[in-house]
UniProtKB/TrEMBL annotation:
This is CAP domain-containing protein. The lineage of its organism: Bacteria, Pseudomonadati, Bacteroidota, Sphingobacteriia, Sphingobacteriales. Residues 106-215 form the SCP domain. InterPro entries: CAP_dom, CAP_sf. Gene3D superfamilies: CAP. It holds the Pfam family CAP. It comes from Pedobacter yonginense.
Length: 229
């Protein structure tokens, strides 16, 4: 078994992982950059933690947490008549391409949370909920770049939006696989190296059509945070 800690409040356990694929406490502490902040929920903190674990060791994440997600997802959709269409197989092109993309991901700079950026993420997620939208465009027509650049001018930036999940592992793995998204834009934001994205805002909110929506905003800026140890 391996263990990971979101905060000092609770511990989650995961089974069926070989010792060679075990995540150490040191790796978890390093990835848990949002652990001490008060403006994020535990699941929102978990989104940042999982994205950071990917950046610490992409291939190990592929064979541990992603495997857990796929196994649970396939078990959940087995009840549906179109199970064969819904299930994620080991020959799925998005699954196989992901391994190629994650093999070189190792010890990348981590994401750190920001309260102002989180407020912007929450504002958009609430807007999506209130107006039953599923878009990077706000109800007033603003694109995410316009929303973010008001407070983070002249910065590289991007945005991921996930629908349907409320749990951090599900959210991150769904975006990482990016099934049905030929550009793989969500995946490349998570493993970004080109744009030096390092600051994130996260908000998980209810949604009338998809039950939940999660907005993750990314910005590149100087980091002065001290990691949790």
């Amino acid at each position: 078994m391996y263990r990971f800690i979101l905060t000092g409040i609770f511990i989650l356990f995961f089974a069926s992982i070989s010792k060679s694929q075990q995540w150490t406490d040191a790796e978890i502490r390093k990835a848990n950059t949002a652990g001490a902040v008060s403006y994020l929920s535990e699941e929102e903190k978990g989104v940042i933690l999982y994205m950071n674990l990917i950046r610490l060791d992409g291939q190990k994440f592929y064979y541990t947490f992603l495997e857990d997600y796929i196994n649970q997802y396939n078990a959940n959709v087995k009840q549906y008549r179109n199970y064969d269409e819904l299930k994620i197989t080991r020959t799925n092109s998005y699954y196989t391409s992901l391994l190629k993309h994650l093999q070189g991901v190792k010890n990348l700079p981590l994401f750190f949370p920001d309260d102002k950026l989180t407020a912007l993420s929450k504002g958009h997620a609430v807007d999506l909920n209130r107006n039953n939208l599923a878009s990077h465009e706000s109800s007033n027509g603003d694109q995410f770049s316009k929303r973010l650049s008001k407070y983070f001018p002249n910065k590289s930036m991007s945005e991921n939006i996930d629908f349907g999940y409320s749990k951090s592992l599900d959210i991150v793995c769904h975006l990482l696989l990016d099934c049905g998204v030929p550009s793989l834009g969500h995946r490349f934001n998570i493993i970004d190296q080109k744009n030096k994205l390092n600051t994130v805002g996260v908000s998980i909110q209810p949604h009338p059509s998809y039950n939940y929506c999660t907005v993750i905003d990314f910005v590149s800026q100087p980091i002065f945070h001290t990691n949790n140890r």
